[in-house]
Amino acid sequence: MPHEAASGQPRSAPAVGPVRLADALGVTSSLLGAPMNLAPRRFLRAIGVEDDPKAVAWTQGVGVREHLATINVLAMRQRRIGMWSRVAGDLMDLSLLVAAHRHKRADAARLQRAMAAVGGILALDLFTAIQLTRADTEHRRDGAGSSGTGVQHEEPGGPLHVRTAVTIRGSEEEVRRRFREFEWSAFDPAELEAAGDVRFVPAPGGRGIEVHLDHEPSVRGGALGAAAAKVVGQAPDQAIHDELRRFKALLETGVIPRSEKSPEGASAGRQIKQRPAQPVGGSA
Fold first, then answer.
1. pLDDT tens across 231-243, in order?
2. Strands (E), 142-264
3. What 3-state DSSP class applies to 4?
4. Which residues contact 212 (CB under 8 A, 6 or more apart)?
């Protein structure tokens, strides 16, 4: 029987999927690619393929692709993209080995073992890619995996509806505490938490905490008032985005980036009135 949470509902899989397994497989790509580039003839003999110049060239190309696969997996926040590229590469490798078995076979037993190994890697890569894809498309109703609270919004919301997230390096406890202490002008943090409009979720790969906002601030005049506020850079949703950027910068660097153009920090309203920066007190 599946384990059940205190609420009696089945406990689902982690929302981020097998990220560490994907990272390990990404590193494995470079470990496989290294002998292909450094000693291609020896590698070909080891897997039972004739080491003629054409086979060496193909091996070198596959080795380069393996290194690119490592970068593609580890550099992507969405690991599923890199893993699906590995699946495509595995299929290509298997087709090359099948062709080599027909035309460039030097040791049938070794070549068949190599084909079986690639088939096993393909199965593992395919499993990981599917799990990551499922995790990316899964909607977490209550921010499982963190102690935050959340709500599921059935409707897309009005013209000022803010549904955004920002990743901040730090522990959940620290980010929560600083979130409550930050001088927000766009909303009251205590009210936001009480309403379930903010969630604190561990970021994939242990990269910090994702602060998720799903909030619709009020504005006078409804849709017309919202449109007018956006034109002049005074809409509440713009203020929320500005302050989120300042909050992230403050927690990660200790300071809020300021300039003569935006002395209070990032500001959509200031950007509308951009002009060449001037030294403080200088002439226009």
1. 445 566 777 888 8
2. 162-168, 198-202, 209-215
3. strand
4. 143, 148, 150, 164, 165, 198, 199, 200, 201
Lowest mean pLDDT among 41-55, 56-70, 83-97, 160-174: 160-174
Please identify which residue in the block is written with the tokens 């890619």. 129
Listed in order, strand segments (DSSP E) in 71-217 are 162-168, 198-202, 209-215
Residue 50 near residue 104, CB atoms below 8 Å: yes
Highest mean pLDDT among 1-5, 160-164, 173-177, 238-242: 173-177
Q: How far apart, in whole angstroms, are the C-alpha atoms of residue 64 and residue 84?
A: 17
Take residue 210 and report the two structure tokens written for it.
């994702």
Q: Is the dihedral of CA 71, 74, 76, 78 positive or negative?
A: positive
Share of the chain above pLDDT 90, in %: 21
Per DSSP, which regions of the chain are E strands?
162-168, 198-202, 209-215
Q: Kindly report which listed range (77-81, 140-144, 194-198) carries the lowest average pLDDT score.
A: 140-144
206 DSSP assignment: G
Instruction: Evaluate whether 30 touches 18 at the Cβ level (below 8 Å).
Output: no
Tokens of 133: 């894809």
The Cα 149–Cα 129 span in angstroms is 29
**pLDDT tens-digit readout, 10-37:** 444 444 578 888 888 888 888 988 999 9
CA dist., res. 282 & res. 261, Å (int): 13
